[in-house]
Specification:
The complex is a heterodimer of chains A (304) and B (576). By secondary structure, chain A is an all-alpha fold. Helices cover 77% and strands 0% of the residues of chain A. Chain A has 12 helices and no strands. Chain A is globular. Chain B has 576 residues and is an alpha+beta fold. Chain B is built from 20 helices and 19 strands. The N and C termini of chain B lie far apart (78 Å). Helix content of chain B is 36%, strand content 20%. In chain B, strands 1, 8, 9, 10, 11, 12, 13, 14, 15, 16 and 17 form an 11-stranded mixed sheet that branches. Chain B has a 4-stranded antiparallel sheet with strand order 4-5-7-6. In chain B, strands 2-3 form a two-stranded antiparallel sheet. Classes of the chains: A mainly alpha (304), B alpha+beta (576). At the A-B interface, α2, α7, α8, α10 and α11 of A face α1, α11 and α17 of B.
């Protein structure tokens, strides 16, 4: 177990290292920031001087080394737009986005689990077909459009929930639903196929032949095994949820790190963009690790 | 057991495959969402900064107040005179008598963006100033009809060519209870004038040498040279409490602002809301509404939905397609006002081939402005003829606009040595002005017809404007400028070589600008602006486009008329 943890942590370092290389190269390709920093009438000497002071005249690997050196100390530089450390700006928003992602997972499970179970049990029934069409719908609907439609229906027509912003827990429901729509579709589909698979196993037949009521067979024996791939998918969906928060938070003016990221991208606020990408990568890696550890509880045969 | 083992193996394979597939899927999904957010999402989002009109332009207004006329300052042209006042606003006395009863109601306003800071001289955007105006007061106030009148200053005159004396109101209190004196307002001016402050308002008042508190209630503003538009230039300088500001420091003050305005600061949660509450000891009297809340909602459709859902009372910048939807709602009004903001396509006249005046004129002949107004604005915009528009002091009514004449454009290009046109770029902010990117695309389309390829490059307004300020525009750029009532504002921020003539200036226009600037006789001054208007129309440093109309969605039971200068003053609002 400990060996596994260590292995995974080393693995995580490599993943984050890879992400940092990619984001650094992308930034390098967008050009030399000095061109944005000096006035047009600056002399070539002034530009060269600034480049030298900022370290932009060094080879790319040296610049990358400096970037890493500062980054591991939590120093991504100051935001160009708001004179505050970029990492602080991002970290302040992390709880808001995690709360949104958590609510999305919760909402998508509440929707997906009953659908998945019913569709598997009543395979090929009308319910199964309708719900699988619904799943297709949920998987292919653009978040942006669904968000606006949800606002118009639920907030404007029905007045059930507020349209946007964040002034309390009920403000999270609509964005979480919007963000979790895709996840719930994926989960419902995986749960259905996994449950169908499990229900055909021998031990289920044994359980039934023992005379167990169908409810006990399903909930006590089948569901737990069928849940393993679902957990995997949900864990992996966290990456999607964090990426998707950019769009969802914009539509709902939800003050998380996605909204911050979009403002930073639009304003070419590179330190903030870098801090956002690295933080996102760290969160995804950690959550995947957590999912792996969760298997040992769900399935005693899984040992690391 | 055997079965179980088999099952375990299968589920592991499933898991491994899933991991692999999902990794691919996730990176794809994350990348797509990011991309979508950058591109697609951006299109319909009024970008961040509501922004800053170029600081200079925002500052200019006319010295229209009657005392100004006596002292020979530019009395506003007829168009800005007071007529048909709508009640509130105006002079404090008039406002006080016309005010409805004090209520415990609150107004909720959604703009497209949040303020950047609560230090009122560090965010010069119209969205920022719209909020600051509630908490801070200026030396002079501009009423609904864009007439300057007394505020913290009751009387003023220029006692010699370079010194203006202001007699200040007594009994004014800051929100922390300390009395307001000349020392405070003098500090506010000198703070902005201090180069170390790097204030966004600096360029507006740069011609002022210093401010001086003569006694507790007398302020002198000393200018470097005779300065006709002085009164206008004071309009974005807010009274700060000198001692408190200095002891707190700028950073802390920007989170705990204290002013003399009708509302005091209560709370600012970044990207969520700004909340201000009625200040009971305000010198004008108590405000009608108990509080005002400003929420940033970037997405147009969401802002409109919030209004329809009854969560807000005012939504700013309603795009034309959404305005139609709002009109059908019986609880809501669409209220429009002819803006002081003009939209134009500027040119970097120091870059070839735009250095050639014939090329610049050709571009003006190439664009069919009436067609843009008709097709993109449904007629809700007004073609401009030259730099200074009809509501601004210095407007020459005899100037005719460039007519749409692509043949003439082609022949001018040929004369200039570009018979086959040329390639350039057209930078534009995205979501800052109504249909900004669409207008840029339309202009680019018209230019294409005469052989000029202008690549439209949309960008975030803040980023765009920073580049503009840094003289980074490479060819054409779409920009709006306005808020002011005196021609000098536009001249200073766009054409004066000594101020911000970043993309065009010439000795001839500089000379006229400086003469008009120092001329204290309004008639002579107007004549100078007529010359300038004509000269600059001919020089064509811009493709002249139109004045826009600002559209607000407002709940029907709110008494409030939108202002041409985009300020959202809760003092002016009440519920029926």
């Amino acid at each position: 177990m400990l060996a596994f943890l260590i292995r995974r942590l080393i693995h995580a370092v490599f993943v984050i290292f890879g992400v940092s290389v990619i984001i650094f190269i992308l930034m390098y390709l967008t050009g030399d920031p000095t061109s944005v920093m000096v006035p047009n009438d600056a002399t070539p000497e002034q530009i060269a001087d600034l480049r030298h002071r900022m370290g932009f005249d060094r080879p790319i690997y040296v610049q990358y080394g400096l970037f890493v050196e500062h980054a591991v100390q939590g120093d991504f530089g100051y935001s160009y737009r708001i004179q505050q450390p970029a990492l602080n700006l991002v970290l302040q928003r992390v709880p808001m986005t995690l709360r949104l992602a958590g609510a999305s997972v919760a909402i998508s499970l509440i929707i997906a689990i009953p659908i998945g179970i019913l569709a598997a049990v009543k395979r090929n029934s009308i319910f199964d077909r309708i719900s699988m069409v619904g799943v297709l719908f949920g998987q292919s609907m653009p978040t942006f459009w669904f968000g606006i439609m949800a606002i118009l229906l639920i907030s404007v027509k029905l007045h059930w929930l507020p349209t946007s912003g964040y002034l309390g827990p009920k403000y999270i429901i609509l964005p979480a639903l919007t963000l979790g729509l895709y996840t719930s579709a994926v989960v419902a589909r995986i749960l259905r196929s996994s449950l169908i698979d499990v229900l055909n196993r021998d031990y289920i037949r044994t359980a039934r032949s023992k005379g167990l009521v169908e409810r006990a067979v399903l909930l006590r024996h089948a569901l737990k095994n069928a849940a393993i791939p679902v957990i995997t998918v949900v864990g992996l969906q966290v990456g999607y949820l964090l990426g998707g928060s950019v769009v969802t938070e914009t539509v709902f003016s939800y003050p998380g790190m996605g909204l911050l990221a979009i403002q930073a991208i639009r304003g070419r606020d590179m330190p903030v963009v870098q801090a956002f990408v690295i933080c996102t990568a760290v969160v995804i890696v950690l959550i995947n690790l957590l999912v792996d550890l969760l298997y040992t509880y769900l399935d005693p045969r899984v040992k690391y | 057991m055997g079965n179980l083992d088999r099952g375990g193996l299968r589920s592991r394979i499933n898991r491994r495959q899933l991991l692999q597939w999902s990794l691919v899927g996730i990176s794809g999904a994350a990348a797509t969402s990011l991309l979508a957010a950058c591109g697609g999402g951006g299109e319909s989002t009024p970008t961040t900064a509501a922004a800053a009109t170029s600081a200079g332009t925002e500052a200019s207004s006319s010295g229209a107040g009657s005392p100004a006329a006596e002292t020979g300052s530019p009395s506003a042209s007829g168009t800005t005179g007071s007529s048909g006042s709508t009640g509130s606003g105006g002079t404090p006395a008039a406002a006080a008598t016309a005010k409805p009863e004090i209520s415990d109601k609150s107004v909720r306003i959604a703009q497209g963006v949040d303020i950047k800071t609560f230090d009122p001289h560090e965010d010069s955007s119209s969205a920022g100033i719209a909020v600051f105006q509630n908490v801070f007061d200026n030396l002079l106030a501009i009423d609904q009809n864009m007439v300057l009148g007394p505020s913290l200053a009751e009387k003023w005159e220029n006692i010699n060519d370079t010194t203006w004396e202001f007699k200040l109101r007594q009994g004014v209190k800051f929100h922390d209870g300390t009395p307001f004196t000349a020392k405070d307002i003098a500090f506010s001016f000198n703070h902005v004038l201090d180069p170390a402050t790097k204030s966004r308002q600096y360029s507006n008042i740069a011609p002022i040498d210093h401010a001086e508190a003569v006694d507790d209630f007398t302020l002198h503003l000393v200018t470097k040279a005779p300065l006709a538009p002085l009164l206008d230039e004071t309009r974005n300088i807010f009274a700060l409490p000198a001692d408190t500001y200095q002891s707190m420091g700028a950073a802390k003050f920007s989170l705990n602002p204290i002013g003399t305005g009708p509302y005091k600061f209560k709370e600012w949660v970044k990207d969520q809301h700004v909340l201000v509450e009625r200040f009971d000891d305000h010198w004008r009297g108590k405000a009608v509404l108990a509080s005002a809340e400003f929420r940033p909602i970037a997405e147009d459709a969401t802002r409109v939905a919030a209004l329809q859902a009854g969560e807000i009372d005012i939504a700013t910048i309603i795009p034309p397609d959404q305005a139609e939807a709002l009109k059908s709602d019986s609880a809501l009004d669409v209220r429009a006002v002819r803006s002081l903001r003009i939209i134009f396509v500027g040119m970097n006249c120091f870059k070839d081939p735009l250095t050639n005046v014939k090329v610049r004129q050709a571009l003006n002949y190439a664009v069919d402005v009436p067609s843009i107004i008709k097709n993109l604005f449904n007629g809700h915009a007004y073609q401009t003829t030259s730099i200074i528009g009809p509501n601004i002091f210095g407007f020459d009514p005899d100037i005719k606009p460039y007519e749409y004449d692509p043949d003439k454009a082609k022949s001018l290009l040929k004369e200039a040595g570009f018979p086959d046109g040329f390639s350039t770029v057209l930078d534009t902010p995205q979501g800052r002005y109504i249909q900004d990117v669409e207008v840029a695309q339309a202009v680019s389309g018209f230019l294409d017809k005469v052989g000029v390829k202008a690549e439209v490059r949309p960008a975030d307004f803040n980023e765009f404007f920073d580049r503009w300020l840094a003289k980074k525009m490479e060819g054409l750029y779409l920009l709006g400028s306005g808020g002011g009532l005196d021609g000098d504002g536009l001249m200073g921020s766009h054409f004066d070589g000594k101020r911000r003539g970043l993309y065009y200036n010439s000795p001839q226009s500089d000379d006229l600008i400086h003469q008009a600037y120092a001329e204290l006789d309004p008639k002579k001054r107007l004549a100078l602006y007529y010359q300038l208007d004509e000269y600059l129309k001919d020089q064509a440093p811009w493709i002249y486009l139109y004045e826009q109309e600002d559209t607000y969605g407002v709940v029907k039971n709110l008494n409030w008329k939108p202002r041409p200068d985009e300020r959202l003053w809760a003092w002016d609002m009440s519920f029926k």
